[in-house]
């Protein structure tokens, strides 16, 4: 058996893509390698969202170049590939800067990985494939589904047409594309057959989903969720990431009406200042967002809300930042992700005047994260004594202990007794830690 090591950076969609690459390679005789030193093929599946993403990839490639040189003498030099959004953005520049790289391909062309490997083997030269192909890549992915864990990601939508001024997604993932319902259903059923009990539906803008249904109509995400919830063995459904402008009435209603849809919603706002939201091209105001949250909570009072925040966007004043703190206090998050703004080449925000000094960004981020941390702890503390179903995912650190997920995506530790991975157990929450809960199984 040949071995492949895939290192995935960034978002959940990259995790999904990496897993599907592994599925494509399995029929070619590849099995997973835990470390790059053991691999015949090394794939860096990259993300362009975080600061200095490309430079971090080049640093990693420098280490892999030395590994390749060390192993060249015994004819075991690995093939090195760069995939994902940095590959899409950098293209030929990657092989120009790092001669050890053999393959470069973007997130829309990884389905051609077997052919790209063959082309490289024949020519002995680097192969770069970053065009947006006309064909549906999902039609070319492996249909066979090897054994999975109890949770899995399932991409249903890719790309984005919103063009937020800070974001590279429209340039690296392309315009919005929704997979057909039948194709998604087939993959969901295959996941259940492979042992999955909880599926998270993925999209760069997942609630903009409008895939072709078997009745000839375009189905919204709410209808897709209702349809998938009828699959036997599918116990839980989630979706991420959403845009406030696409949070429709039927999707809000689905949280109240579909028992398998978990009461957890990731709904980024990014900033609380209307002036900054306008400069970000978000297409909604802070008031719009708070009214939307009120409607969601009316439909599902126990829902846990998560969000994304960017501090230090160009031109952000202290008053603008205080508006972000105000929206956090009003929204009451169970969890959230927050980052300092960093320019992305080619995006409008990178060319804006009044870039905020890094020390100001750092100060604001610390203040925001302190508030968000307080809210997360308060949400977790409110779970103390509550009864809830837990899906067991993996062994814990101690004998007989297992870790599961709450409906709100928290890690929960229990003494499992005779229960095993994949079981759904009803528990009572006994203790709250900084990042997890402890519970006992109800008698």
* Assembly status: single chain
Overall shape:
globular
What level of helicity do the residues show? 25-40%
Write out the strand line-up for the largest beta sheet, numbering strands in chain order.
Answer: 2-1-3-4-5-6
What structural keywords apply?
single chain, 443 residues, alpha/beta, Rossmann fold, pyruvate-formate lyase- activating enzyme, OB fold (Dihydrolipoamide Acetyltransferase, E2P), six-stranded parallel sheet, 13 helices, globular
Short note summarizing the structure:
By secondary structure, the protein is of the alpha/beta class. The chain has helices at 12-25, 53-72, 84-90, 92-97, 113-123, 169-172, 181-193, 221-228, 249-257, 274-279, 286-299, 318-331, 358-382, and strands spanning 2-8, 30-32, 41-46, 79-83, 103-105, 127-129, 151-155, 157-158, 177-178, 198-202, 210-212, 218-220, 236-240, 264-266, 304-311, 335-340, 387-395, 401-405, 411-415, 424-432, 436-441. The chain folds into three domains: 2-129, 3-Layer(aba) Sandwich (Rossmann fold), CATH 3.40.50; 137-382, pyruvate-formate lyase- activating enzyme; 387-441, Nucleic acid-binding proteins (OB fold (Dihydrolipoamide Acetyltransferase, E2P)), CATH 2.40.50.
What can you see in these coordinates?
The chain is α/β, with parallel strands linked by helices and 443 residues long. It has 3 domains: 2-129, Methylthiotransferase, N-terminal domain (Rossmann fold, 3-Layer(aba) Sandwich); 137-382, pyruvate-formate lyase- activating enzyme (Alpha-Beta Horseshoe); 387-441, Nucleic acid-binding proteins (OB fold (Dihydrolipoamide Acetyltransferase, E2P), Beta Barrel), CATH 2.40.50. It contains 13 helices and 21 strands. The chain has helices at 12-25, 53-72, 84-90, 92-97, 113-123, 169-172, 181-193, 221-228, 249-257, 274-279, 286-299, 318-331, 358-382; strands at 2-8, 30-32, 41-46, 79-83, 103-105, 127-129, 151-155, 157-158, 177-178, 198-202, 210-212, 218-220, 236-240, 264-266, 304-311, 335-340, 387-395, 401-405, 411-415, 424-432, 436-441. The strands form 6 sheets. The protein has a 6-stranded parallel beta sheet, sandwiched between helices. The protein has a 5-stranded mixed barrel with strand order 17-18-19-21-20. The protein has a 3-stranded parallel beta sheet with strand order 7-10-13. α12 links the parallel β15 and β16 (335-340). α8 (221-228) runs parallel beside α9 and α12 runs parallel beside α13 (358-382). The protein is globular, with a radius of gyration of 23 Å.
């Amino acid at each position: 058996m040949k071995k492949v090591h895939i290192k995935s950076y960034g978002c959940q969609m990259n995790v999904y893509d990496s897993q599907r690459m592994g599925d494509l390679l399995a029929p070619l005789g590849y099995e997973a390698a835990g470390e790059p030193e053991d691999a015949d093929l090394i794939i860096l599946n990259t993300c362009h969202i975080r600061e200095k993403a490309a430079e971090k990839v080049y640093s990693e490639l420098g280490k892999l170049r030395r590994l390749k040189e060390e192993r060249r003498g015994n004819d075991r030099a690995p093939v090195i590939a760069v995939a994902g959004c940095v590959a899409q953005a950098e293209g030929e520049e990657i092989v120009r800067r790092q001669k050890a790289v053999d393959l470069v391909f973007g997130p829309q062309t990884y389905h051609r990985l077997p052919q790209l490997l063959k082309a490289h083997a024949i020519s002995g030269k680097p192969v770069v494939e970053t065009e947006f192909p006309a064909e549906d890549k999902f039609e070319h992915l492996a249909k066979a589904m090897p054994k999975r864990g109890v949770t899995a990601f399932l991409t249903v939508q890719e790309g984005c047409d919103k063009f937020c001024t800070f974001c590279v997604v429209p340039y690296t993932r392309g315009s919005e594309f929704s997979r057909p319902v039948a194709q998604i259903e087939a993959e969901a059923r295959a996941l259940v057959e492979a042992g999955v009990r909880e599926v998270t539906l993925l999209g760069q803008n997942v609630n903009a989903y409008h895939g072709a249904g078997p009745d000839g109509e375009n189905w919204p995400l709410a209808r897709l969720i209702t349809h998938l919830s009828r699959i036997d063995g599918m116990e839980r459904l989630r979706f991420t990431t959403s845009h406030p402008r696409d949070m429709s009435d039927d999707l809000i209603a689905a949280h109240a009406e579909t028992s398998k849809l978990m009461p957890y919603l990731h709904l980024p706002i990014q900033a609380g200042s209307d002036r900054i939201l306008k400069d970000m091209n978000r297409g909604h105001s802070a008031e719009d967002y708070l009214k939307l949250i009120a409607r969601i909570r009316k439909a599902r009072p126990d829902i846990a809300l998560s969000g994304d925040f960017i501090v230090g966007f160009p031109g952000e004043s202290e008053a603008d930042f205080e508006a972000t703190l105000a929206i956090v206090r009003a929204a009451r998050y169970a969890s959230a992700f927050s980052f300092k703004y960093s320019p992305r080449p080619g995006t409008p925000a990178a060319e804006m005047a009044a870039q905020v000094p890094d020390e100001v960004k750092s100060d604001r981020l610390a203040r925001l994260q302190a508030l968000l941390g307080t809210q997360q702890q308060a949400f977790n503390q409110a779970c103390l004594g509550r009864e809830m179903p837990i899906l067991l995912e993996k062994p814990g650190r101690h004998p007989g202990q297992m870790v599961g997920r709450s409906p709100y995506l928290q890690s929960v530790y229990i003494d499992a007794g005779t229960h095993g991975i994949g079981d759904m157990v009803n528990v009572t929450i006994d203790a709250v830690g900084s990042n997890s809960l402890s519970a006992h199984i109800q008698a």
